[in-house]
Amino acid sequence: MSRGEHQSKKLKHLGAALESGALAQVRRILNNDLQAADVAHLLESSPPKERNLLWGMIDDHNEGEVLQNLSDELQSWVMNRMSAQEMADAMSELDTDDVADLLQNLPNTVTQEVLTSMDAQDRARIEVALSYPEDSAGGLMNTDTVTVRPHITLEVVLRYLRRHRSLPEMTDSLLVVNRRDEFIGSLAINKILVSDTDATVREVMSTNIITINATMEDTEVARLFERHDLISAPVIDPASGKLLGRITIDDVVDVIREDADHSLMSMAGLDEDEDTFAPALKSSRRRAVWLGINLLTAFLASAVIGLFEATIEQVVALAVLMPIVASMGGVAGSQTLTLMIRGQAVGHIDGSNVRWLLSREFLVGAGNGVLWGLVVASATYFWFHDLKISLIIAAAIIINLIVAVMAGAFLPIWLKRLKIDPALAGSVLLTTITDVVGFFAFLGLAASFYF
Predict the structure, then answer these.
(1) Structural class in CATH, domain 147-266
(2) pLDDT digit string, tens, across residues 46-87
(3) How many Cβ atoms sit within 10 Å of the Cβ of residue 440?
(4) Which residues, including other chains, have CB under 8 Å from residue 363's CB and lie 6 or more apart?
(5) Do residues 192 and 164 make contact, with C-beta atoms less than 8 angstroms apart?
(6) Which of 9, 118, 210, 267 is the most buried (most CB within 10 A)?
């Protein structure tokens, strides 16, 4: 049985114990049998009543590990139930970057209370991470690093390492610094094991190391890790060159997952930390905003149709065929919009290639417009036996598909320049454009031909 299957079996046992009311067994499974990530997953998958019960059965020394694996919304929900000292105790065994992530979800006054409850050394390390934005390399880094000087021998390094009870997680190399704590290179663990112990660190260390400025955005950090297959990377103060900490692959995976969640949920106007089991009133308030925006855009499309009310009354087939034009434009635009947002996310799109992309999308829209315009025109002729209306809908589809793909290509670029999230606003604007242009082109051409 694989580890994943084993954990799944334990979760089933816990569910059965919870249903039967065997709370002692539930407590044992939560604290002894399941890993913290699985307990967090269970909490996120439970309705509020069961969630309250489960959290109350988690032992104090396990709370911190579970907390760091919860979504931001659930982290806030849990920490609002804890005192400052309880939070400090729960975070005492966590890495600096994990503590900083948790504290950034709290009000400043509560954060200061928690920091005051910590010892001076832990507080100083966490304050360094908190001094940088949450979505930067500085906010992502862990200040818990193992550093060595370049002039010592590997034998000294080995003796130094043996004095530690354990090394920080994901330690694939030691970071080499000078007396001013300026980063100068990296000493891989495997080099220590296979090299002559009389050799100095300087002789075997690597200096061609990718470093990360503390102010770099976390999405750019993720791209660097992906491009260079990194496990960890040092974080440097861009002004002084001093080593501040390091970022490890587990933190980068969290960034990638959060970005994916953000893109997916933003398409529907939702927060990426939306709680699946949030109360109905809370969920309805969040969704109402974008439903209202969508209603306004729908009224705009309806107003365009209203301009051609007399035309529609005279030619009833127009009312039947209108949705086809808008739908074709919507799909074509969404394809381009999704492609462009993905290109921005992975760093493929910049000022040097935008013009080429816009030209390509124009040709794609025109080609598909002609192809599907002819298909729809043929179907329309066999349906209504009206050549005029067949030519009108073909022309409308060509126009709308060209406009749709150009809008899908241009909107993400324009919105990003305005510092508006393209994933959040792009789909609403695109739908408005394709509906308005589609209806106006179709009904306007019909009005010209028939009247």
Answers:
(1) alpha beta
(2) 777 788 888 888 888 888 888 888 887 788 888 888 887 888
(3) 19
(4) none
(5) no
(6) 118
* pLDDT, mean of residues 82-101: 80
Q: Report in angstroms the alpha-carbon separations of 403 from 102, 300, 398, 437.
A: 45, 18, 9, 8
Tens digits of residue pLDDT in 278-332: 666 766 766 677 677 777 878 888 888 888 888 887 787 888 888 899 999 999 9
The amino acid present at 156, given as its one-letter code, is: V
And the tokens for 59? 């032992």
The 8-class DSSP code of residue 136 comes to: B
Distances (CA, A) of 243 to 94, 96, 116, 302: 21, 15, 26, 60
Spatial contact of 56 and 66, defined as CB atoms under 8 Å apart: no
Based on the number of CB atoms within 10 Å of its own CB, is 413 exposed (0-12), middle (13-18) or buried (19 or more)?
middle
All residues at 6 or more sequence positions from 168 whose CB lies less than 8 Å from its CB, including other chains: 95, 142, 144, 145, 146
> How far out from the chain centre does Cα 56 lie?
30
- Which helix or strand (DSSP H or E) is residue 155 part of? helix 154-162
Give the domain 280-450 fold: Tetracycline Repressor; domain 2 (1.10.357)
What predicted TM-score, i.e. pTM, was given to this entire model? Answer: 0.64
Burial of 409 (0-12, 13-18, 19+ CB in 10 A): buried
Three-state DSSP at 420 gives: coil
The domain spans of the chain are 3-137, 147-266, 280-450
